[in-house]
Each structure stands twice: as C-alpha cells, then as structure tokens.
From TrEMBL, chain A:
Molecular function, one GO term: metallopeptidase activity
Subcellular location: Cytoplasm; Nucleus
Any Gene Ontology CC annotation: nucleus
UniProt xrefs under Gene3D superfamilies: Creatinase/methionine aminopeptidase superfamily (3.90.230.10), Winged helix-like DNA-binding domain superfamily/Winged helix DNA-binding domain (1.10.10.10)
Keyword entries, A-Z: Cytoplasm, Hydrolase, Metal-binding, Metalloprotease, Nucleus, Protease
InterPro entries hit by this protein: Creatinase/aminopeptidase-like (IPR036005), PA2G4/ARX1 (IPR047113), WH-like_DNA-bd_sf (IPR036388)
Keyword Protease: yes
Protein name: Probable metalloprotease ARX1
The keyword Metal-binding appears for this protein: yes
UniProtKB/TrEMBL annotation, chain B:
Coiled coil start-end: none
Pfam families to which the protein is assigned, alphabetical: Alb1 (PF09135)
Organism of this sequence: Candida tenuis (strain ATCC 10573 / BCRC 21748 / CBS 615 / JCM 9827 / NBRC 10315 / NRRL Y-1498 / VKM Y-70)
Protein name as catalogued: Ribosome biogenesis protein ALB1
Compositional bias per record (Polar residues), positions renumbered to this chain: 61-71
Amino acid sequence: MNQLAVHKDDENRLLKTKNVVDDIVLDKYRTAGHIAETGMSYAIDLINQMYHLQSQPIKPISQICLMVDSLMAKALQRVYTKSENNISKPTCFNVNEILSNYSPELDDPIEVFKEGDVITISLGVSVDGYVADSSHTLVIYPAGKKPVGPLLGPKADAIVANHYIKQVVTSLLGLSLVPEKIPVEIQNDYGRQVSSKLLKTVVESIAEAFNCRVVPGSEIRVIRRFLSGQNEFLQEKGYKGIKWTEADQEALILSKLGLEDTTNTNIKPAEFFVAPGEVYQVNVTVASIDEFSELGLVTTEELNKYTGLNNKSSDSNMNMDPHIFVRDFIINYHLKLKSSRSMLGKIDKAFSVFPFKLSFLSERFPLQDNTEEEIEAVKKSFTESKFGLSEVLNHNLINGKPIKILKYLPVKSILGESSIRFNDVNALKLIKHESIVPTKSTESFSVVLHEANNEVVQLTGSQGPVFCQSSYQLQNVVIDQLIRLLGDKYGVKLKTVRAGAVVSDLRMEVKMETD
Amino acid sequence: MPSRNSINKPKDKMLRNSHASSIGKKRASRTRESTRSATSRYNEDALPRPSDSRSIAVYTGNVSNPTHLTTNTLSNKKAKKLARNQKYVEKRLQKDLDDQMQTDEPKPINSLIKLKTKVKGENSTEKIRKALWGVVNGNDLSMFKVSPQANGTTVGVQSF
C-alpha cells in the first residue's frame, strides 16, 4: 500500500480547517445529501413503476444506472458551480449475493430483475469534496398495486435487523451530543461517552438477535473532505472508524464457547470515542445464516471475468469484470498511446479522486432526454474509451473496483487447515468449501453531528424498510430505549434531509427541505 | 546501427545515452543515501521554508500494515524440522525452569518470560481447536441458534 505525504501546513488546512462543520460546510453536506436522496428516491420510483405498478416498460439494469447517474450529475452542475462536484459512488444495483460494485454498462448482456430478488441500490455524491453516500435494500414483489403480503424468511430477517441497526447507530452517534442522556446500562468505565466498542457490540447483538451476521467490510467511519473511503487501494492517514472482519465473527463464536483467542496477534484497531462535530458514514451489511445448518463464517470473495462464471447463482450471463474505476494518483507513467493519454487527462480533470464508469467519459453524459439516440451514442463511445482503457489499467494508473459476493465458509473446513485463524489460512485453498449466501441487506447513510445546534443531521437514508416480517424479535430493553431516544423531544434531536422532486424524466428541482 | 568507428557514427545518440546514464546514476545515489539536512521539509519540527514545494509528494517511509498476509509457504520438511526443534527448546526451557525452582538461583529473565507466554499461547490454541471440533462433530448448534418468537417483527408499510 502506498501513502501520500502532504506538507505540514497544507495538511492542517486540508484535514482540520476544511473539516470544521460551519454553516457553509453543513450546507454543502446537506446539498450533497439532498441530491443523493433524490437520486435514491428516483431509482426506487423507477423500480416500482417498472416492476410493481408496471406503468413503464422494463428497462435493462444498465440503463437504469445511467439514468440515475445522469439525474445526479445534472443536479451537481447546478449547485456550488465554482467548486468540484462529483458522483462519489456510481449507482450500483447489487442483486442477491452480490455485495458491492455491480453497475453494468450499456454494452453488457441485458439484465433485468426477477421476482423475489433482493436489490441493494447504492449511490453517492460529493459537493466540493463533502460526501453523502446512500444504500438501500429493496425486494421485487409480485406485480400489483401494493404488496400482497409481507416478505418472510431469512431475507426479511436481514432487512429487519438492518432497519434496527440503522436507528440504533444514529441514536448512539447522536448521544455524543447529549451525553447526559446515555442510558445507565451502557455507560462504561470512561463515563458518559459513546465508544467504538459500544457501537460494535450493539450492532453485533442486533444482528445476532435476528440470526444474522455482520458481513466483513461493513464500516462505521468518520468521513472528511475528499476522504470517504472511496478508494480502498489507498491507506488513509488518521482513519477513525470500525471495520468488521472475519475475525469478529470468530471472536463471537469463541465467546459463546466461553473462550477467548489470546493468541491472535493481529493488531486490534484503537478504540475511539464519538466526538461532536464529526461526520459519520455508516455502511452495514448483514446476512442471514438461517439456511446453513453448519457452524461457519460469512466471508466475501472478489470476482472477475473468469471466476465470475463459476459463481452464477442463476442462468444469467452477468459480466463480472469491474465496471467502476478509480484513479490512483501515486502512480506516474508516461502512456504510449495517444488515446490513453487523452483518456487519462479527461479522468484527472473530470473525476479527481472519485470513482467513475466508462459511460461517464462519453460526451453525451449526462443524458438529456433519455432517447434511444442518446443511449446509442453513449454505447458508441465505449469503443474509443475501451481502446485507451487497457493501457491505463495495465499500468495501474486507475484501479478497477472488483465485484464482491458473499460466501459462507464452514468452521469445519477451517479446522482442517493448519491454523484456526481465518486471517492466517490460505483463503484460496478454502474456496471449494464455500457456498453462496443469497440473503443480505445493506443500508448505508451519512450523519453530521452538528455541535452548534446540538442536533444530528441525517444526510441520507430517510427511506423506510420494505414491507416484511421476521420471525425473530428484539429482546433487549436497552436497544428499545435507544430507539425511543431518537427524534424524541427529550432525546436526540434529529433532522433528516428529504429527497427533492423529480420534475420530469432526468430533471430534478434542487430545493432543500429538512424535517 | 552504424558502428562507433564508421563515418556516420551516431554521435548524438551516444552522447545522449551517456548523459542520461550519468544523471540517472546521480539521481539514484541521491535517493539511496539521503542528503537532506536535519531541517528538511520532512523533519516534523522544521518550519516550512518559502521555497519548499507545496505539491503532493510520494511518501516512501514505512507504512504499518497490520493486516498483512504472508505469501511464504513452509515446506513440509522445514515445518517438521521447526516443530521438532521447538519441542526440544521447550523441554530445555522447562528443565531450566524446574532447576531454577529447586535451586532458586537467579536466571536471565528473558528466557522465563518467553517460556511462560509460549506455554499459555499453545494451550489456548489447542483448547480452542478442541472446543470447536467438539461443536462441529457433535453438531450441537443449540447455543448458536436463535429461537423464533411467537410475535415476530413486522416493519415497513404495505405500499410501493
């Protein structure tokens, strides 16, 4: 891993002064949140109209992605015109076992959703480097005016668990603004503070109550200007956050047996306290393990064109090559081909440190009217950009974000190896023992802990869960109490950024509202 | 290419090559042995000079990477050898410890600490393996199962 070093006084300006949440910064965050929320509600509307209400012909997933991105890109052109506004996360539709980064291009095989598919819509925007990301999980019900009944089974368990996690995490983060209201039961040795350990324990216990596991890679982290974890290939200086790994599930299993793995030499991340004035991004995926009779761990696997073929849960012919790319500014190389050079110039200018798709490079992006002719023009531009892409990609000037899927690995096969620790065993050897986890739910949202007003501003994630019923139930009094504190007059003050109206196809009104 | 002695020798090319290699050597030596003074821009205490570059530079120092995965594999032979030697080392240390207990003679502290941690670590690893095998073989998953509740939980609203 590489790391960027910045001059001391620049570092102070970039990392400290520029990250103080004052009125202007808060407004930028809220604008970003507003646009992301509108994009999300537009995407949900499109799914509802195409699949549930059937008032629109069904379009391929690739085209829906492009439409939502166009909507957000056009809105970004109209706010804070002097600053650098970007899409911080191209719209992804992660279907069933796919965990992240599935955002097909127009020239990929045509894919549509099926009834019963669990879809996670994932997107995000940045206004002047201040990022608001959002993910929401939906289910394709049978067509009709309304759902005939609630969704049941493991899929519902994961969605319900994530719904509670979303509320409780917001509440806990908000309690850092009003520490006097932290319930006595969860006060720790340090007194009235919200610690990372507390956040982690609460999230894990909710997941467990619904027979789910927190998927490795889930994160609760502080975001700063231009630093929202959009580039996993770089190590970030001053990272503050919780990131789940397989070792956490291992610890969970051992704690049930009354044991503790004292030999684990992996350095544990430093514990931290949530401080007012910070901006948090929460991205938690839970997967139900209801259908597995064996004891095991939920893990992830990165796919590519070749391994992707072996991992098809259905008869689809999805393209599992990376669709989303991100620039690596550390690498310097003089490209040989003229087309690659011009492509790199375009990338540096247009996307800076944020991820992008090939269709964003087209001159017809963002789409204006969503006509057939425009779609064809974007498709045509791929020939040119793909020509330049290979050289840029081969020299690591940009990195492709691999598509990840969820897998379940039985403990038995790990025990068969020489080491019990997941991090130590050769994961490649174990792949043959893994099976696909088809039920997951991802929710991600950003919150600003606004110190001046003593309130939590929830930038994204105002969507409620889909209609579903789990056979499990929360039985923890403290968690109930935390949920009740949220938005209560005597609890944590909460303001939510609402989605704007989409005036006509691909056009939105930028007018902010919070409540 | 014409030779060095020919009438149309590639003079320009040769000069360029030799120049390039000489400045290349200089550059390499500069990066190899740092010639920066104590008050360079990388010295955290130093105030920035007006002439200092403000551009972003590549950091070449050590980066701690706790989640490092090794790609080295032990050969069977080597692994056996290590395991065997470890056994002897432990036996010897245990003997030393026993001797020390009896004679109460001061021993180098290092060796004692090493022994203690070693024994503790191995025991716990074995214990964990044993416990996990027990669960896996006996299929006693009751403690890992959550039982459904009569009421369950319903969320969301019945509309699109």
